[in-house]
Design brief:
The protein is an alpha/beta fold. The chain has 19 helices and 21 strands. It binds zinc ion.
Length: 549
């Protein structure tokens, strides 16, 4: 829900009932559209509460877009606008279906008479409205709801994304985020035309998704006794927990679909599993003797699920069956990162599996797990994504690699013909600091990724044109060990999310980038963030420049 924040008197003075020409002196669209042509500067389209939405084809094709317009209309006029299937005079927003365009491509034409949007279907039309949302001056969102008319410039935009995958990952295990907070994250993503939400749902520190067949996963595995303070220096003594019911999940999946976002759920296999092991100790190599407890510390717990016992595979298959039914997207992320294989070395079940299958070592045992889970998910019509560690013992040609320990995993994958998503920590880990010690940036895990560094990501680095075809896209990640509140979450996210969104949408070749232009647009966009009630870091890079209010 968009909130009105008119805290700054400067903006209050701009709260006009009709926007004037000087408000349109420049555009600050982010991501930047592929082509933008300005029309007659003396002419305007008047957007009013009487403007009518026209869809000449099926209403459902344009539902996300029409919902997005209605949200804007309510925000600036205080009322929804009419919808119709036939044009009757001027002053319309007309959706036209154009099958010659790509899935996410659109044209947006603002003429003195009408706004005309061409797209193949939902996504393109939705992105046209996200662009329109930024063409509308920020003051319109900050004014009290009494705007009667909004003059828009004459303009034509032709636009489409460079990458099909433009993602953001949120860790909901170290800290748990409410359904409302997740929806706000999806709103933030949608505004930046990002289309994949990677939802990290299981961890050592808590299992967060209801699985009907295994109720203890949430009754026990979602709870931890307490949480470490600082960098594992003490304990807060406060029990912590939370999980999403399957009803919550369906609600969020629907909310995401309405914003043209596909959710990729992540179920960690075989490491990062103490939440599950605390609920069902037989999953671990040490079984009932394991004394497993959902972890209160940060880091990588040494415990791991047993890859020797068939019962573990039955569990994974049951869990993934429910997950596959809940999430309509083609991908399920199966983790695979930071799996400590030491317990496998001394587990008779795991060693037997290695022997029976002629495997060389524990790394190959992890590959056995990955390949077997992948085959199972293929039968369910799903593909897998794994963190780059799944390359270590060999991986099937159909697995997609998420490159996080630098770009090397993605480069290796692309060179051997596996699809890859680039999310190297040095550019894409937003739990890293973005300032050099400002008070409003709380204790973080470490690292340093200021806005410029995020924007410097080159997902094609070291790849030939042929290999570049295997880069599906880019993603930024937010691990939440040191992020306990929504305000800090959004602070870490914004404005850096805009950098990865732009790399994903625009041609990411270094020679095509305009860093200063990007920073300037990012600053302008931060005014919208505040207007929508989102927190945002109040500086942009190492020299600590304040946003020029
Ligand atoms: Zn074992």
């Amino acid at each position: 829900m968009l909130k009105k924040i008119c805290t700054l008197s400067f903006f209050l003075s701009l709260c006009l009932t009709t926007m004037t020409a000087q408000d349109y002196s420049k555009f600050n669209l982010l991501p930047q559209p592929a082509e933008l042509t300005r029309g007659n500067a003396n002419s305007r389209f008047e957007f009013t509460p009487q403007t009518t939405i026209i869809y000449t084809f099926g209403e459902n094709d344009f539902k996300p877009a029409t919902n997005a317009i209605q949200e804007i209309a309510v925000n600036i006029f205080g009322t929804k606008i009419k919808c119709a299937t036939k044009v009757n005079g001027d002053n319309n927003i007309i959706f036209k279906k154009n099958d010659s365009l790509a899935e996410e491509e659109y044209t947006l034409e603002i003429t003195p008479e009408n706004i005309i949007i061409n797209s193949k279907g939902s996504a393109g039309a939705f992105y046209a409205i996200q662009t329109l949302k930024q063409i509308i001056p920020v003051q319109a969102y900050e004014t009290p709801i009494d705007l009667k008319k909004l003059s828009l410039p004459i303009i034509k935009i032709t636009d489409k994304p460079h990458f099909a995958y433009r993602g953001f990952m949120l860790d909901c295990s170290r800290h748990f985020w409410s359904v409302e907070t997740i929806k706000e994250v999806l709103d933030i993503m949608a505004m930046h035309k990002m289309n994949r939400f990677h939802w990290h749902l299981t961890e050592d520190q808590g299992w967060r998704i209801e699985i009907k067949k295994y109720p203890l996963l949430t009754q026990i595995g979602s709870l931890r006794e307490q949480t470490t303070t600082g960098k594992n220096v003490g304990m807060d003594g406060i029990p912590y927990g939370g999980y999403y019911t399957q009803k919550d999940i369906k609600e969020i999946v629907k909310y995401a679909q309405e914003r043209c976002i596909t959710i990729i759920p992540e179920i960690e296999i075989p490491g990062h599993s103490l939440g599950a092991l605390s609920a069902y100790p037989w999953l671990g190599c040490r079984g009932e003797e394991g004394n497993y407890k959902t972890w209160s510390n940060w880091g990588v717990a040494p415990e791991i699920a047993c890859a020797g016992k068939e019962s573990t595979f039955e569990f994974w298959e049951d869990v993934l069956s429910e997950v596959a039914n809940l999430f309509p997207g083609e991908y399920i992320h199966i983790g695979g990162d930071e799996a400590p294989r030491d317990e496998w070395k001394i587990c008779p079940h795991c060693q037997q599996r290695i022997k029976d299958n002629g495997l060389k070592n524990e790394a190959e045992l992890q590959s056995y797990v990955t390949n077997r889970i992948e085959k199972f998910l293929h039968k369910k019509g799903k593909k897998i994504i794994g963190w780059d560690e799944i390359l270590e013992g060999g991986v099937s040609q159909s697995a997609t690699i998420m490159s996080w320990r630098g770009a090397e995993g993605g480069i290796t994958a692309a060179k051997k013909g596996n699809y890859a998503i680039m999310t190297p920590s040095g550019h894409c880990y937003f739990d890293y600091y973005q300032t050099t010690g400002r008070d409003d940036e709380h204790l973080s895990i470490g690292g340093y990724v200021p806005l410029r560094k995020a924007y410097e990501l080159n997902p094609y680095d070291q790849l030939s044109p042929e290999e570049q075809k295997f880069i599906l896209g880019v993603q930024c990640n937010l691990w939440t060990e040191y992020i306990p509140t929504k305000m800090q979450l959004q602070y870490k996210l914004l404005p850096r999310l805009g950098a990865i969104a732009e790399i994903g949408w625009c041609n990411p070749a270094p020679e095509t980038k305009d860093v200063e232009g990007f920073i300037g647009r990012s600053k302008e966009l931060s005014r919208y963030y505040y207007a929508f009630g989102w927190n945002c870091a109040k500086h942009f890079y190492e020299d600590d420049v304040q946003i020029g209010w």
